[in-house]
Each structure stands twice: as structure tokens, then as C-alpha cells.
Design a protein that fits this description.
Number of strands: 57
Number of helices: 12
Mean pLDDT: 93
Length: about 1000
């Protein structure tokens, strides 16, 4: 009971958790500007100094747009993993930036740091300007807890059967507006403009009537493609608002989202623009659909794109010919995210496919003359356990892979024509360079020596192997460059102001590449001798990553409204392009006009556009000394219906949560407390330490350490009976039960993500305080007494394995596996029979020692049997080794967290066994309905059956195991755009009726319905 009670009463309220780990093996430094602090490790020094320069330059332009200036912002810079992103913690005034530049198939080429700093800082300013109560109070929570009916005479109240924790948000910015404004930043910057990639996504959706709905734009929880469309649609609509109604309206809508009575973007838009949000959406979508149809007409009537040969999946990339009849390529197939891609082999004649290597997202290259493929893959098998890329070779004959490099951060490989060399790119401190190794992965040599944030892409060997072509970028365009294999003669081959990429050679020595010269990415052929260029596709979406066979036929990755597909384009069709038929590109869509706020002078705009980030500020670095975020305060009101003897006022329990952390996340604390009119309390404190633990760190271990403290009290009225030779008397008084627990733990990842080992020491003390009372028929006062009836100590070791496949439904209908194996050695002092000795006139409890070993296994297999349909098999088994111990230490099988067909306290014992089978399926998906601030997404239903029992001693026969069945309804929603909201109802029926004798009373269970429910952030508790 106590563990679940603590977990539920003290639910962590983390509404902006993101990838936020601390790496203790790195040294950390700080540099400071006028407005910002930048914290970094020496391996990211150039990036950190560039961030400081950019952040100071964009501070005033962005804050002036929103007429809001935050407190000093702390940037944390990391170059630890091959991971590219930025994250804004707008309640903490912290921004995290990963130095690796973003190279994403759905984004164009922009200067990474200029883009990401301006984007994340706009988030900070825009969202804080829209807060209702400032950043100290993220939300106010209303909580409700109901309990099973009390039956047993030895317990105070039943176990929870309904739990609700629901926020009233103080910030409610929809996803499209938050991301749209962040990409808009200031139009004058040009750091993230409306490029051809963004136009491609919106154009394809608009032409095929697949635009996100007004409600869908407000939330994420979509596929990679769907989430990017939230960004894309948001950017387009914010531009439309700025161009038609004026840039100042962006600031006014933001400010009115902070109005106490506004909980939707619709209300703020109505206040500012005088039309509803739905009217604005309809006006915008009607305009862009017509505009795109008019501008694309010539292309649609003269398409040259070839045949789609990989219809499954929205992420099909990097095709290569194995021979003239087979290709290998990367695909996410039926997965929801690009990150779940793998290598597949496709027979072009039979159309049969084969999975070769799972979990690969890089380019692939065949070794000439051998049946082998070279690829790159993320791995944490390195001394620091960082997630970085290395090269591997896959043998198609044996079906086995071999690792070639270790710790090079090598990605996007290509094999030389003679099969002797591998060229690749690698990243350090925000700059990428070209490297080369021998075919066995040895003999590393760096070919380019860039060190100022330059980016290189997708290197390929020339036909004679003497030089390498690759994409190159420093600012906002991508060019095609070359370098000799000895590192000499770096030069630009194609530099025309457009985005040129993915260059490869055909058998005649011509360069085939992709370019957005017409406003749409098409494939082009260039004769290197004459420099003559011809377009060889005319597509509606986009054409990328070509590969050419010996006959001149091409396969490429082409974009459609359903994502990226592999197209096959014959040599004959490449000659059919009419180059006069092309898309009418607009540099400033949708309205080709602007209504700027006018608060930036021309000189400032000039310097923002004509930046030179090779020249950095001379900032003094100091050792990081520790900076803590402002304490977040989260008030809540809980209605705790645990005992029917309390009146309604007594059940109201107000409280607060408080939280803060060091900006590097070395330390953090989370605490909370609640108290009611009867002074019943719920208190907890959790402190986590992630820095070096001296002895363990020298052994190569870096566990998280922490302490958790819990203090809970409950009051009850009890009857005290006095027996004498003459008569029996009784009186009533109050008893206060005080439960205290302190946990000390170490937690460590084992080898890979999803495997954790935890060591924990738990100290518990349970005390009953009997209030003073008058002896019956006398004036004698019996004083208040404390009876500590349990003192527990527990050494616990817990192994947790979690391998849940990332899907858009993983919260409501997971696929994968969860295993928890727990061992406890308990040495407890317990007074089970209420025995006391009189010592010095004071009653002292007589304890018995209960020292024993406890083992428990909880295993869940989530098996996908059909698309969106799963079968979950759960096994729970537990045993207390040695002689039987009192039921105070029992396992409990039933209730909300177990076999729901029976109440929590109905089945208990020193041994336990339970099997559950659950079939879960969707009733409705993509509901796309919004009621005020509540967005309804999907509804799942499940049916299940249980077989289980708990016992002491010999295992009972299977016929004596309890049986039950039930149904559950899960509803996935979103509140105030930001808060995931999970609503569930559960009804279970128990087939076996039986009685238990407890303290002389017969308590009957079974042949009855039990009901449960809750409103939480997710369905895991």
C-alpha cells in the first residue's frame, strides 16, 4: 500500500521534460555576455563562443518584437552525442543546444547556429510573454482520489480506485503558433526563411487536400512527417498573419494568450483580428490551395518523374544499385518515425523485398566486386557511452555485419571505385569535415580542415577515384564542392545561389545532382568538361539522392504528399523534359508583401544579415560554479476521499509542489506537501545527484544518486475497551498514524539505453499516536502515547529493462517489452500482536525480528498481432524465502495496479502468481475534435482475463487460483495544447467467491464487479 500511495500522492508534474542528461566526465566552463550565460565543455568551445555572439546580437530585435524582455538566459552547449536539436525550458530560463548541425530531409540548408539560437530564443520570449502568472507557476492542479470500500477490520481505508490529477494551465500556446513564431523569428534575419523544402511540404499537402486541420495544427503526437507539418503549417500561417494583418499582430496575439480568461488561440485571434481562428484558417487554406494550383499548372501537365517502386513508408532514402536488377535503400516502412529506418533490398523485377540491417539511417555504399555494403550506425559502445556514428560492413552472403571504426563519429560513407577506400563525413564542435579510411576502417586521414562551422554532406568518389564531390555550406545555400583524395585542391564545382546537393557520377562521367533552381528540387545532368547543365526531371514534389545503373537508368528519393518514395526513371524518360515548363516560384509567399513592425533600423538589419561568425567575441571563460533555476511553484487542491468518516471540508487537502535544478542538471530537487483541516499531512522530498561520486567514478561508473523522504499521517477514531472482574468499560479517542520513509539510491544504465540497475536502502517507521483520554468512571487522564509498531530496513536491488517501440500510440497501446526484477533483503522489527513491557513505568513495545529475502518479477510483453491491435501477456510472480511471515509483509494481488477483478486487499500472501492476457484495439483514431481547451485524439478499448492467487507455504492447485475478466476504455486527449491527458475507465468481474477470516470477522469477496478510473498524463502508474 505505502509504495503506491506515495507514487500517486506525489505525482511528478513535469510538463516540459526533454532530453536533459548531465555528463559528469566532462569539464564545464562558463562565459558571460550582457544578457546571457553560456555553459559548455572545452570540446564545444568554438560553438559556445559563437552562441554567445549570436545570442547577444538577436536579443534586442526579438525582445522588441514581443515588447517583452526575459531575465538573463542560460545556454547549455553540448557536443557529446551525434544528436542535433535545441530545447527551450521556458520556466527555467534555460536553452540547450547540441553543436551538431541539423541535416534533416524535411528542412532546407541554413546556418545551424544562427537558426537554432534565434529559434529557441524566440520560443523563450514569445511563450513567456504569453504566460498568465509568470514563469514561477506553470499550472494549478486539481486532484481527486477515491478508494475501494473498506471491508477488512484491520485496515484504515481501502486502496485507491479512482485517481485524477488535472492542470489548469498558465500557458496555452498551440504548437503551430509556438513553432511558427519561432521559425519566423524576425523576417529581417533570413536565418530560417521560407525555403523550397518548406514550400514542397505545404505545396504537396495543399494540392492533394491533405493539409492539417485547424485542430491538428495545435498539437504534436504525430509521425515524423506529421510533426514537421505542424512546424511547416505554423510557419506559413504566421507569415500570412504578418503579411495580411501586420507583424505587430503576432505580438498582440501572444500577449492576449496571457489573458486570464483566454484558454484557446481562437479567443486571442478574435480579440486581435476580429475573426475566429477557424475563419482565419479557412481564409488562409483557400488562398494557398488556389495559389499553388495556379503556379504549378505547367508542371502537373508535363510531369516527368518515373514510377514509384517503394509505396510503403514515408521515409525512403539513399537508393543504390546492387546490380541492374536490385537496389538497396533506407526505409522506415510502416514505422511512425524516420529514426526507425533500416536497410532493405528490393528486386526490381519480382518486387520482392528483404530486410538486411535494422536501425540504420545513413547512406549506404556497395563495395565493387563484392557482395558487401558499407553503412554508418549509431552506437554507444565506446568509452564514454556516447551515441555516435561509426562505420560497419554488411556481408549479404552471410547476413552478418562487422564494425570497422571505433569513435570516429563517421557518417554517410561512400566506397571508392577500386573498393580500397571509404570516404565519409565527421563532426566536431559544430563543424563537419571529410575523412577517409582504408576499406578495413584503418588509416584515418582528414581531407578537409574546416573549423568555422562549415558543413559538408554526402561525399562521393569520382569515377577514377582521384577526387571526391560533396555538398558544402557555410550560410544559407548548399553548393557542390570537390577535394582530391590527398586533401588538396578544395574548390567549388557548382555555385549559383541555389541549393545544390546529392551529386553522383554516371558511367559517362557526367555529374547528376539535385537542385532547387526552379523552386522545386529536380534532378540535373552536368557535363564537367563543357559545364552544360540539363534538367532531367519535372516533378511536383521534389527529387533527391539519385543513383545510376550501368545503362543510365536512375532511382531517386522523391517527395510526395505521402512522404519520400523511391522512384525509377528510365534513361529514355530523362530526355523528355521540356525545360520551359516549370514552377512559378515566389521568394516571399504567400502574399509577396510585408507589413513589418518597423522597430529595426536599416543599420541593425544590415549587420544581422551580413554576419561573420568566423570572428568571435573574446570572452573570458571561468570554471562552471553552479547556477540554479528559479524555483517553480505548482499549487494544487486535492479532494482525498479516503475515509467516509471525514466530512467534505476535511477531505479537501490543499498543497504545493516545488522544483528546481542546476542548469547542467547535476542536481535537482522536487518536493511537495499537502495538509487538511485535521492536520493530516502528505509530505515528500526528492533530491537527485548526477555528478561524480569519487570512488565509483574512478572505476568508470557514473550512477545517479538520490534521497527520497516521505512523511504521511492519517487520523482515525478508535474504541478502547477495558475489562475488569466486575464490568467492561469503553471509551473513544483519536489515533494518528504516522508513516515515515527514507530511501537512498544509486541508479545506473547497463550497457545500453533501456537497461537500468538500481540499488536502494529503505528505512521505514510506522507509529500510532494515541491521544489522551479519561479512564471510564474516573477523573484519571491517560496521557498521549506513541507506539512505533514497525521499524523496517530494506536493501533492494532492481533491474529494469524497457524496450518499447516508439510509435504515435506507444502511450495508449504500446508494443515491446517491460521487465522488472526486484530483490529485497529486509530486516524488520515488528510488533504484530501488540505486546508491551513496562520499563520505568513506560509501556515499551516487544518487537519480533523478521529478516527475510523477497524476490519479485513483473514481465509484460506487448505483441502487435494486427496493425494497431495488440495482445499483452503479463506475468507477475513473487516469493518471500524461508518461514512464513505475518501478513503485514504480504504481496497484494488485486486492485487498480494488479488483478482488477478483485479488490486490492482481498488476495494476499507470502507467495504470489498472476497471469494476465489483454487484447487492445482502437475504437476510434484521428478523432480530431476540440471542445474548448480539450483536444480529443483517439479511443482504445481492451478486454482481458486474469488467473492468479497469493498464498503461504505450498502452492495451491490451479483450480484454486482466482479467475476474473474485464474491459477498459482509454481516451487520449490533450489539454491547453501542452498537457497530455489520459482518461481511462475499467470494469472487472470476479468469478470466484470466497471468504477470509480477519480479526474474527468473515470478509467475503468475489462474484462482483469492481470499477476503476482516472485522469492522468499517461496510462502508466
Amino acid at each position: 500500500m505505502k509504495k503506491f500511495l506515495y507514487t500517486i500522492l506525489f505525482i511528478p508534474i513535469l510538463i516540459y521534460a526533454q532530453f536533459n542528461e548531465y555528463e559528469p566526465e566532462y569539464e564545464w566552463l562558463t562565459i558571460k555576455g550582457e544578457h546571457v550565460f553560456v555553459h559548455y565543455h572545452p570540446e564545444a568551445e568554438r560553438t559556445a563562443k559563437t552562441v554567445l555572439k549570436i545570442a547577444e546580437e538577436v536579443w534586442e530585435p526579438i525582445t522588441s518584437l514581443y515588447e517583452y524582455e526575459p531575465e538573463p538566459v542560460h545556454f547549455v552547449i553540448k557536443d557529446i552525442d551525434d544528436y542535433s536539436n535545441g530545447a527551450t525550458y521556458f520556466f527555467d530560463n534555460k536553452i540547450e543546444i547540441w553543436a551538431s548541425a541539423l541535416d534533416f530531409d524535411l528542412r532546407g540548408t541554413h546556418n545551424w547556429l544562427r537558426n537554432v539560437i534565434s529559434h529557441e530564443f524566440t520560443h523563450m520570449v514569445q511563450i513567456q510573454s504569453a504566460m498568465k502568472l509568470g514563469r514561477k507557476i506553470p499550472a494549478i492542479y486539481f486532484q481527486f482520489m477515491n478508494y475501494e470500500k473498506k471491508r477488512r477490520p484491520d485496515i484504515l481505508y481501502g486502496f485507491p480506485n479512482f485517481i485524477a490529477s488535472y492542470p489548469i494551465a498558465t500557458v496555452n500556446v498551440p504548437a503551430w503558433f509556438a513553432e511558427g513564431t519561432a521559425q519566423y523569428m524576425r523576417k529581417e534575419f533570413g536565418y530560417d526563411d521560407w525555403d523550397t523544402h518548406r514550400d514542397m511540404i505545404l505545396r504537396c499537402y495543399a494540392l492533394d487536400n491533405k493539409l492539417l486541420t485547424w485542430n491538428q495544427m495545435g498539437v504534436f503526437d504525430k509521425t515524423s512527417l506529421g510533426n514537421e507539418s505542424v512546424y511547416n503549417s505554423g510557419f506559413a500561417l504566421v507569415r500570412y498573419i504578418s503579411q495580411k494583418y501586420g507583424e505587430d499582430k503576432i505580438q498582440k496575439i501572444s500577449r492576449l494568450l496571457g489573458k486570464l480568461s483566454n484558454f484557446t488561440i481562437d479567443a486571442a485571434i478574435k480579440d486581435v483580428l476580429g475573426i475566429t481562428g477557424e475563419d482565419l484558417y479557412n481564409e488562409w487554406t483557400e488562398f494557398i490551395k488556389k495559389d499553388y494550383r495556379d503556379r504549378i499548372a505547367d508542371v502537373i501537365n508535363n510531369k516527368i518523374e518515373g514510377e514509384i517502386i517503394t509505396p510503403v513508408g514515408f521515409g525512403n532514402f539513399y537508393p543504390v544499385f546492387i546490380d541492374n536488377t536490385k537496389i538497396a535503400y533506407i526505409s522506415n516502412k510502416e514505422n511512425d518515425y524516420f529514426g526507425l529506418s533500416s536497410i532493405y533490398l528490393l528486386d526490381l523485377k519480382t518486387k520482392k523485398e528483404k530486410l538486411l540491417v535494422p536501425q540504420v539511417r545513413s547512406t549506404i555504399s556497395k563495395i565493387p566486386g563484392e557482395n558487401k555494403l558499407v553503412y554508418a550506425k549509431l552506437s554507444d559502445d565506446n568509452p564514454r557511452w556516447n551515441n555516435i556514428h561509426d562505420l560497419y560492413v554488411y556481408d549479404m552472403n552471410t547476413g552478418k555485419s562487422k564494425r570497422l571504426t571505433f569513435g570516429l563519429r563517421a557518417n554517410n560513407p561512400s566506397v571508392s571505385p577500386d573498393g580500397e577506400k571509404i570516404v565519409f563525413l565527421f563532426q566536431r564542435d559544430g563543424t563537419t569535415n571529410i575523412g577517409i579510411v582504408n576499406i578495413d576502417g584503418k588509416g584515418f586521414k582528414q581531407l578537409t580542415l574546416f573549423n568555422s562551422g562549415e558543413q559538408v554532406y554526402n561525399p562521393k568518389f569520382s569515377p577514377d577515384g582521384s577526387f571526391i564531390v560533396f555538398g558544402y555550406s557555410l550560410k544559407n545555400t548548399r553548393e557542390i564542392a570537390k577535394v582530391n583524395i590527398d586533401g588538396s585542391d578544395f574548390s567549388i564545382l557548382i555555385h549559383n545561389g541555389y541549393d545544390n546537393r546529392d551529386a553522383v557520377f554516371d558511367n559517362e562521367g557526367n555529374l547528376i545532382f539535385s537542385s532547387d533552381e526552379t523552386g522545386i528540387f529536380n534532378l540535373y545532368k552536368m557535363n564537367l568538361s563543357t559545364k552544360e547543365i540539363h534538367r532531367i526531371t519535372n516533378v511536383v514534389g521534389g527529387a533527391f539522392q539519385p543513383a545510376i545503373d550501368n545503362s543510365g537508368n536512375i532511382v531517386y528519393s522523391g517527395y510526395t504528399s505521402d512522404g519520400f518514395k523511391i522512384f525509377y526513371l528510365s534513361k529514355e524518360d530523362q530526355k523528355k523534359v521540356d525545360e520551359s515548363k516549370k514552377y512559378v516560384w515566389r521568394n516571399n509567399p504567400p502574399l509577396s508583401k510585408d507589413q513589418p513592425k518597423g522597430d529595426l533600423d536599416k543599420d541593425k538589419i544590415y549587420h544581422l544579415i551580413n554576419y561573420d561568425d568566423t570572428k568571435l567575441l573574446n570572452a573570458e571563460s571561468k570554471k562552471y560554479s553552479g547556477y540554479f533555476s528559479r524555483v517553480s511553484i505548482i499549487p494544487f487542491i486535492r479532494y482525498d476521499n479516503y475515509t467516509t468518516s471525514n466530512n467534505a471540508i476535511d477531505r479537501i487537502k490543499p498543497g504545493i509542489y516545488i522544483a528546481s535544478s542546476d542548469y547542467l542538471n547535476r542536481f535537482s530537487f522536487f518536493a511537495g506537501g499537502a495538509i487538511n483541516k485535521l492536520f493530516e499531512r502528505d509530505l515528500f522530498l526528492s533530491f537527485e545527484y548526477r555528478d561524480k561520486l569519487p570512488i565509483l567514478f574512478k572505476l568508470g561508473l557514473r550512477p545517479e544518486a538520490g534521497v527520497e523522504l516521505y512523511s504521511v499521517s492519517r487520523k482515525a477514531n478508535t474504541l478502547i475497551i477495558f475489562d475488569s472482574l466486575d464490568a467492561s468499560y469503553n471509551t473513544r479517542t483519536d489515533v494518528t498514524y504516522n508513516l515515515f520513509e527514507s530511501d537512498f539510491f544509486l541508479r545506473h544504465k547497463i550497457i545500453t539505453e533501456g537497461n537500468n540497475l538500481e540499488f536502494r536502502f529503505i528505512f521505514s517507521s510506522y507509529t500510532a499516536t494515541l491521544s489522551s483520554f479519561i479512564f471510564p468512571n474516573s477523573t484519571l487522564l491517560y496521557p498521549t502515547t506513541n507506539d512505533t509498531y514497525f521499524i523496517g530496513k530494506d536493501f533492494q536491488v532492481k533491474y529494469v529493462h524497457e524496450a518499447i517501440k516508439p510509435t504515435i500510440d506507444s502511450d495508449i497501446n504500446p508494443v515491446g517489452r517491460k521487465i522488472e526484477l526486484k530483490y529485497d533483503y529486509e530486516f524488520n522489527r515488528y510488533n504484530p500482536d501488540g505486546k508491551y513491557n513496562v520499563e520505568d513505568g513506560i509501556l515499551k513495545p516487544v518487537y519480533d525480528n523478521f529478516n527475510f529475502h523477497r524476490i519479485e518479477l513483473n514481465w509484460k510483453e506487448y505483441i502487435e498481432i494486427l496493425k494497431d491491435h495488440t495482445l499483452t501477456a503479463q506475468l507477475r510472480a513473487g516469493t518471500i524465502l524461508g518461514p512464513t511471515v505475518p501478513d503485514f509483509f504480504d504481496f497484494y494481488l488485486g486492485g487498480l495496479i494488479g488483478m482488477k477483478s478483485y479488490p486490492f486487499y482481498s488476495i494476499s500472501g507470502n507467495e504470489l502468481g498472476w497471469i494476465n492476457l489483454t487484447y487492445r484495439f482502437p475504437l476510434f483514431k484521428n478523432i480530431d475534435k476540440r471542445i474548448g481547451h480539450l483536444y480529443i485524439d483517439k479511443i482504445y478499448m481492451s478486454v482481458y482475463g486474469d488467473l492468479g492467487n497469493a498464498w503461504n507455504g505450498k502452492i495451491p492447485s490451479i483450480k484454486n487460483f482466482k479467475k476474473g475478466a474485464g474491459i477498459e476504455l482509454r481516451i487520449k486527449m490533450n489539454s491547453f495544447y501542452l498537457f497530455p491527458t489520459s482518461l481511462f475507465f475499467n470494469a472487472a468481474y470476479s468469478f470466484d467467491k470466497y471468504s477470509r477470516k480477519i480479526l474474527g470477522e468473515n470478509v467475503t469477496y468475489g462474484k462482483e464487479w469492481n470499477f476503476y478510473g482516472g485522469i492522468l498524463f499517461d496510462f502508466n502508474f
